[in-house]
User: What shape does this take?
Amino acid sequence: MSLVHKSATALLSEMQSGSVSSTEVCTAFLDQIDAHDEKIGAFLRVDRESVLAKAADVDSRRSAGGALGLLAGLPVAVKDLLCTKGQPTTCASKMLEEFVPTYDATVIEKLDSADAIVIGKTNMDEFAMGGSTENSALGQTKNPWDTSRVPGGSSGGAAACVAAKMAPLSLGSDTGGSIRQPASFCGVTGLKPTYGRVSRYGLVAFASSLDQIGPLASSVEDTALLLQAIAGSDERDATCAPNEVPEYTATVAKPLEGLKLGIVKEHFAEGLDSEVGDCVTAAIDVYKALGASVVDIELPHSKYGIATYYIIAPSEASGNLARYDGAHYGYRTSDTSPVEGEGPLVTMYRRSRSEALGPEVKRRIMLGTYALSAGYYDAYYVKALKVRRLIRQDYDAAFEKVDFLVGPVSPTAAFGIGELSDDPLSMYLGDLYTVTTNLAGVAGLSVPCGFTKSGLPVGLQLQARPFDEERLLRAGHMYQSATDWHTKTPTV
Amino acid sequence: MSIEFETIIGLEVHVQLATESKLFCRCSTKFGSPPNTQTCPVCTGSPGALPVMNRHAFDLSLKTAVALNCEIPKFTKWDRKQYYYPDLPKGYQISQFDLPMSQHGYLEISDSKDRFETKKVGITRAHLEEDAGKSMHDEAAGKADSRIDLNRTGTPLLEIVSEPDMRSPLEARAYLDELKLLLTYINVSDCNMQEGSLRVDANVNLHLQTDDGKVATPIVEVKNMNSFRAVERALAYEVDRQLAHWKKTGEKIGDVPKQTRGWDDSAEVTKAQRSKEESSDYRYFPDPDLVPITTTDEQVAKVRDSLCELPAALRSRLVKEQSITPYDAGVIVNQGRAVVDYFLEVAEGCGDGKQASNWVQRDVLKNLKENEQTIDQFGMSATSLAALVKSVKAGDLDNSRAGEVFEYMLANGKDVVASMAALGIEKVDDSALDDLCRELLAANPKVVADVQGGNQKAIGALIGQAKKKNPNVSPNDIRGKCLAMIAEMS
Assistant: This one.
C-alpha cells in the first residue's frame, strides 16, 4: 500500500517507529497533489519547500529524541478561511485574494504545537457561502469520484483533497453543513463539532453563531485524532466552551453498548433521493445488527430550519462582511472617477464591494441587510431567533429519548457542475438535513455509507448531544468497523 | 415682542474609562502615541479576530452606574451598531442597544450661588461601548487623502444619557461639573476633554407659551463643544437662535427632521452639519461573538458598599460638621478628595473649620496654583498648618504676621514655633504695650488732638511708628490701646 493510501493513524505510528520519515510522508502527498490537483483543484496554494522544511525539522527533532506533538510529521490541509500568519488567506474571494493575516488562527497554533504540517490551503465557496464550491472566485474544485460533478461545499477542497489522497487530514468549517455535505459527496468522514468545542479565533467569519471548525479524514479514527489536536477552550474566543476535552483517540475504538438511535421522520420525507434513502436505511440496519435499538423521532420545527437559517446566517454575514469596504483590507477599486451626486468615499465603498464580492455573497449580504432593517427586524430576525430556540428544544427533547439521531446528510448525491447554479433555492434546500444541527449548536458526523448506481458516494449523518463527540465518534467507528465504505477510493 | 418660554436641555456624555487596555482586546489605551502603534487584529477588525470583554471596563461602568443611582439589570448584552466609516474598521461598533447595563438613575445638581434650585437630573441610561478611531482629513494641504489612526479604536466608553431635565445653560454646566467631579472622585476616568476622555453632545429646544398654547421648537443636537464653557455658550447661543428662528418661521417640532449643529468656538455660533446618510438605520442586532453579562444583586451591593463618599455627601458633611458655607464647601470639594482630606486634618487639628477653610483656600490653594503643584507635593503638612492656625487663634501670633510665618514655614520646612523664633516673633506683654503707646502719644500730640477732634482714623499714623519700634506688636492692639488712652485723657 502506498503511503498516501494509509490512514493518518497508521502513518503516525510508522513515523513513531521510525519505519518512515515525515519527509517521505509529506513528499508522497505533495507528489500526489502534483499528479492530480490540476484535475481536481482542491488546493489554492501549496508551498512544497516550506512543507518539506518543516518535515525535515520534525524528522531531525525526532531523531534527536525530542518530545513531539500529537500529530508530529503529519500533513494537514487547511481550508482557506483559517488565518495563517504571513500566508495568504483568501476565503476564495477576489476581495481577500491579496490578504495576508498578521496572526495565526488558534487551530493553526494548535496544529503547530502538535507538530502537524500545513500542506496547503484548500478551495471553498467564497466566504463559505454555498454547497458546491462553485462560488469560489479562484477556481472550481471537482469531485474526485466524477469530475463533472461538484465536491459539495463550502469545504469542497477540504473534502476532495482527502478523497483524492492528497492529504490524510483536513480542516474545514461548517455553518449549515459545509463539512458534512462535502464529506458525504466525496465519500470521506467529516465532523461538525458542538458549537464552542473548537475555537473560532482566526476563522474568517461567515455567521458567527453557527460557524464551527471541524476535521475531515478518511476514517472516524483519523477524525478523532485531528479533533483531539484542535478542541478546547480559548481565552481569545468568548463563545468557546471551557469544557474538558476527552481522550477521543483513546476511546474511539471502544464500541458502545445499548445504543439508541432516533430516526428523524422529517428527514425521510419528500425530496429525498431514493438511492440515498436506500443507502441510509441499509446503514441503519447495520446498526441494528450491531445491537442498536431504533425509534422514530420528531423534530417538529425542523421544517422551518432552512427559513430560519437563511435569515440568521445572512443577517450575521451582513455584519461580518461589512469590514470588506476597500478602506482597510483586501481589494480596493482602482476606479477613482467621480460619480455625480455621490461622495468619493461612498463611491469607493460601492465600487470595491461591487467589483470584489461574488453574486452569492452579495445575495446573502442583501438578504441579511434587509432582515435587520428597521421595520423588518422583528418580523424576520427576532422571529428566526425564536424558532431557533424551538429547534434546540426539539433536539433536547429528542436526546432525552435517544443517544443519536441518524439519517441522510444531503437529499442527493453530488450534482453536476453548473446544474443548480441558476437555482439558489434548490441549492439552499440541499442543506435541509444539516442546518438544524448548527441552529441547535449540537454535533454532527458524516460517514460514507454506500454509493449510488452511478458510483457516487452517499453519506450517513449522526447527530449527538452537545459535547458528546466522544461517544459520537465511537458510534461512527462502530459503523466503520462493520463496513468498508470509507475505505473505497476514487480512481483519479 | 416678548414671549415666555422654557429651555429644555438633555445631555449625552461619552466618558473614556480609565482602563489600561481596550474594551475587547489587550492593546494599550494610552493617549498620544504615534498613529496605529496601539493596534492588534481585534481592534483593527482583522478578518477572523474576535472580541473578548475586558472585565475591568465593565466593573468601572458598574461603579459609575451605581454612583449615578441607576438600576442595574440582571442581564445585559452587546449589540452591533452598523454603519460605514473609515475610522470604524469592522463596519460596526460594538455597543448596547435595547438592554443597556444600567438605566433610570439621577444626578443631583445645585448652585452655591442659588441661581437655580437644587434638582435631580434623571439619567435615562448609561451603556458601555467601544470608541472609534480618528480620521485626519488633510484638507489644508489640498490633498484628497485622509489618514486613519486606530489607536483609539476599541477604547472603552461609557455613554451617559440624561433626561431632558435641565432648564438653562447654567444647569447644563452644573450637571457637567458635578458629573465630572463624581467620575473623578470614584476614579473611573480622567475626564480630560482635550484628550477626548470626556465628550458632550447636547439636545436642546424651547417650549414657548403662545396665545395658541404651548409650542415646542425642533430639537437640535449640538456637537463639537470642546469645554464645559463651550457647552454653556453654545446652548445660550442656541436658545437665542431657536427663539429668533421660531419668530421668523414659526417652525415647530416635527416640521423638519432633527438637526445636528456644530459649535464654532471662534465664531461663537452653531452651524448646521450635514446629517450622516446612514444615521437613520443602524440595523442593531446582538453581537454573536460575545456572551451576555449577568449581574447579581450581591455584586451590585458589593459595588455600592465599596463606593467612596461622593461629592454631594461630602459637601453637606463639610457644611454640617465644619460650619463652613456651601460655597466654601464647594470650592474645597471641587479640588478633589486629597485637598478635602488635607482641609479636614487642618480643621480638626486647629478646631476651627472656618479658619481652616480660609487658610486652605487663601494660602494653600493659591500656592499650589502658583507652583502648579498638587496637594501631595505641597511642602507643609496639615499638622503644621493646623499648629499655625492654632497659634493665631490663641493670640500667640498676630494675624498681621501670620502670612510671613506661613511663607517661612513653607520655604524652610520648619514648624510654627521654630519659624516664629527665627523671625523674632514673640508675644508683646501688656506692660510693654502700655509703655510703647504712652511713648507714641507723647511724641505725637497732633494725632491725639485729631482723634480728640473726632478723626479716629488719625490713629493709623501711629501704627507704622509702633511697628518700627517693635515689629511684634499687633496693629489692632496698638489702635485699641492708644484710642483707650486718648479717651482717658479727656
